[in-house]
Amino acid sequence: xxxxxxxxxxxxxxxxxxxxxxxxxxxxxxxxxxxxxxxxxxxxxxxxxxxxxxxxxxxxxxxxxxxxxxxxxxxxxxxxxxxxxxxxxxxxxxxxxxxxxxxxxxxxxxxxxxxxxxxxxxxxxxxxxxxxxxxxxxxxxxxxxxxxxxxxxxxxxxxxxxxxxxxxxxxxxxxxxxxxxxxxxxxxxxxxxxxxxxxxxxxxxxxxxxxxxxxxxxxxxxxxxxxxxxxxxxxxxxxxxxxxxxxxxxxxxxxxxxxxxxxxxxxxxxxxxxxxxxxxxxxxxxxxxxxxxxxxxxxxxxxxxxxxxxxxxxxxxxxxxxxxxxxxxxxxxxxxxxxxxxxxxxxxxxxxxxxxxxxxxxxxxxxxxxxxxxxxxxxxxxxxxxxxxxxxxxxxxxxxxxxxxxxxxxxxxxxxxxxxxxxxxxxxxx
Length: 430
Ligand SMILES: [Zn+2]
Hints:
Elements: H1 13-22, E1 41-42, E2 52-63, E3 68-77, E4 80-85, E5 93-98, E6 103-106, E7 108-113, H2 126-129, E8 135-141, H3 149-156, E9 163-169, H4 194-203, E10 208-214, H5 217-220, H6 224-238, E11 242-245, H7 253-257, E12 265-267, H8 286-293, E13 297-298, H9 309-317, H10 341-350, H11 355-362, H12 364-369, E14 387-400, E15 406-420, E16 423-425
Parallel strand pairs: 2-5, 2-6, 7-8, 8-9, 9-10, 10-11, 11-12, 12-13
Antiparallel strand pairs: 1-5, 2-3, 3-4, 6-14, 14-15, 15-16
The structure holds zinc ion (ZN).
């Protein structure tokens, strides 16, 4: 698995800024000019052959899987993409969505969320925050473990319009507790049984796409390295990747990274906590570069405590870009600083990444990182009918990171309408 990385270590500041400029080519619309114009209209009636169920017309398609940034029409039938062309006549479709002035991308993929509500303190309902806000596929990152996954499978995933897949926590109880004064999930290793995790993964291969473990002393006590060794056993046996949460670990990061292999994912990569990816001088450490060289992937996982503008800027200046951009949406951050994935993406616009670079990281790269069991992250004909229509709104916006630090941005990505398997979802009112 080789990702289409734009993060060469030799990425210069000049190239960086050139990339930023390209995002300005897209005409930005004024705040508020959005959803109503894009309600689907019945197609003109004189046409003979209604071959398509839905036609998304006139939008600027950004599809990094095909290196495409241009005006295109997208036609869907039976929940799949069937045509992607410069002009498809409106008369050929039962419904037509006018996307002129808007951005049209493959349905966004958020590889770090917590969408297992009612069990423990983290979970939120997926649809209001995902499919109604541009995200067609959400990965629940370890909210469930072997003992609680059956409830996620039976009561949550089938009811969600969002495609939900899961990383199984290596700890059998998953994330049912918080931290101090309660017991963190890895503080008692009796809950960390790799055989239970393997069995659950084997029995649920359609939904479990990897394992999750959290390295923060408040969740692990001194057990992080032993927990990771057990996760390694499970991952090798089940042949699945591990996603590791970092930030404030008991064990120095280098020792933990040494156990990760190609295809494993580090999330919360750009936090400002102890044992992060940069040294006290702000330089990305040699162990982190080595891990990337051997194919370990570095994800954002913004969250309430895990994304620092300052750390991110230092990494960008050194050409160390994230492989994937995810939100880590959970109950404590939906009202800020995260809000949703498109807000997280907007922060990368103000940091200088282009729209193409940003969407690469939440479409094609995210799809390649895990086996979602469906062709997603692309608008190629034959792929799932998952499409995000977004507005790039111009204005003065204040964005806040997980440390409470702010930056001003002049552009903001806002969801207009999301298509999931051919069905339309609008942002919830209010
Ligand atoms: Zn998380």
